[in-house]
Design brief:
- This protein is mostly beta strands.
- The chain has one domain: Glycosyl hydrolase domain, family 43 (Tachylectin-2, Chain A, 5 Propeller).
- It has strands at residues 13-22, 25-33, 51-57, 64-72, 87-91, 94-102, 108-115, 123-124, 138-141, 147-151, 184-187, 200-201, 204-205, 223-230, 233-239, 246-251, 258-265, 275-280, 283-290, 302-310, 316-318.
- Strands 13-17-16-15-14 form a 5-stranded mixed sheet, with no helix packed on it.
- Bound molecules: beta-L-arabinofuranose.
């Protein structure tokens, strides 16, 4: 059996693992990295993925079952390229796979595909979710059944282009002592395929109650939002991108405001860092990726898992392998 420092999937490159417990098993919904010759740049052209596999496990860290292709870009009518980090949700007998891709105008949108089983196959709706943009969807169904889709990522993820509620191709990440770009959330309608109302910004505050600043690259949101709830506390965790940390913030409401609470993980091998957090069989786990399996190639990543513990104030600590 693997140790907690080994890649848990080695027969293909995988990244951006979104973990959920469905039907008593732990399911992973990752990106499927593939080899290619695209330029490695700040727009993320090197991440040129065309399909998704779903994986499951009954013990952590494995063995892991590969359920095969669950969705391919050829079956997404609106998508032109780059199937990036997905997530999944269950409601009323259906499973929903949320995924970002570039549309025919090269703008990232978020689509949804529906299946009857957690492992798929999934059938994509013909259009992306109306009003969706940017990348890295994270679905969250609260205890009262309310469902939300958190999303966003800056630089290649284009979130900075949506500060005016329309796509501004010339916009760049702000600099200086101004508020940082914020992740977004849309409340999902009962059909789980559209937003009920408009998309909102999620505030992340510092210890003084001020919005994190654009120049605070060690703490500001970059991409990969993940929401989980434990003992009434809502946790928003995310990647700080170009400083390569996983960070988190806490709130008493899924819509925030969230207050920055600390770092989860230091930089790993490879540029990106992306994760999810899940409780399974009485333990909490952090699933994340690095580029160790490919010897450090940014676009060829592998999934790892680590145990996570909480102190009495609800602050999180990842247990690192000795
Ligand atoms: O896998 C492509 C992109 O890289 C994801 O959408 C980001 O979160 C980063 O991991």
């Amino acid at each position: 059996m693997n140790s907690l420092d080994d890649p848990i999937i080695t027969h293909m490159y995988t990244a951006d693992p979104s973990a959920h417990v469905f039907e008593g098993k732990l399911y992973l919904y990752p990106s499927h990295d593939r080899e290619g010759n695209n330029e490695d740049n700040d727009l993320g052209d090197q991440y040129d993925m065309v399909d998704y596999h779903v994986f499951s496990m009954e013990t952590v860290p494995g063995p892991v079952t590969d359920h095969g292709v669950a969705l391919t870009i050829e079956d997404v009518p609106w998508a032109s390229k780059q199937l990036w980090a997905p997530d999944a949700a269950y409601k009323d007998g259906n499973y929903y796979l949320y995924f970002p891709a570039r549309d025919e105008d090269n703008i990232f949108r978020i689509g949804v595909a529906i299946g009857e089983r957690p492992e798929g196959p999934f059938k994509a709706l013909p259009q992306p979710i109306p009003g969706s943009y940017s990348i890295d969807p994270c679905s969250f169904v609260d205890d009262d059944g309310s469902a939300y889709l958190f999303f966003g990522g800056i630089w290649g993820g284009q979130l900075q282009n949506w500060e005016k509620d329309h796509f501004d191709a010339s916009a760049e990440e702000p600099t200086g002592n101004v508020p940082a770009v914020l992740p977004r959330v849309g409340k999902l309608a009962a059909d789980m395929t559209s937003f009920d109302g408009s998309v909102q910004k999620i505030q992340i505050l510092d210890e003084n109650g001020s919005l994190l600043r654009a120049d605070d690259h060690d703490r500001r949101f970059f991409e990969g939002p993940w929401i989980h709830k434990r003992n009434g506390i809502y946790y928003l965790s995310y990647s700080t991108g170009n400083t390569h940390y996983l960070a988190y913030a806490k709130a008493d409401n899924p819509l925030g405001p969230f207050t920055y609470a600390g770092r989860l993980l230091d930089p790993v091998i490879g540029w990106t860092t992306h994760h999810s957090i899940v409780e399974y069989k009485g333990k909490w786990y952090l699933f994340h990726h690095d580029s160790s399996l490919s010897g450090g190639l940014n676009h060829l990543r592998c999934i790892k898992v680590k145990e996570l513990v909480y102190d009495e104030q609800g602050n999180m600590k990842v247990l690192l392998p000795e």
